[in-house]
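TL;DR need structure tokens for one chain.
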Amino acid sequence: MDTIKEEKIAIYPGSFDPVTKGHIDILERASKMFDKVIIAVLKNNNKKSLIPVEDRVNLIKEAIKEIKNTEVDSFDGLTVEYARKKGAKFLIRGLRAVSDFEYEMQLSQANMSIAPDIGTVFLITKPKYNFISSGIVKEVASYGEDISKFAPNCVVEYLKRNNKKGTT
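>> reply
TL;DR here they are.
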């Protein structure tokens, strides 16, 4: 008797404004743990973004084109509702420092109370990326400094093309 193996799908949610090398590091490792990882870019109308959602989606697609079992999408609303819609049973959350853990734990517990069928997997970024955040990338770029150590080349070029600085 053949059994059908259920595909293990994970959602990696975030604003990714912009995507960083730390985000890519987390995604690469998550892609080895799951059959499919969907990077879900949150449309947050309450937050002022540097890069429009559609451009963020396209930049991420470009940055991860070598990682085969991934998709990029955007969503609004609750992450767990989006995960259910996509058939995902896991959320991926990246941790850079102990300070991230408290917020992420609270978020995970809130999600668990809403959707007990969806778990959270925490992945710790490599030490060389643990200080990188989208906020730091945006700030460094705003001063015209080189961000190529922090963000994929497509992000560096995008910021340069759109006069948001990012390289000297």
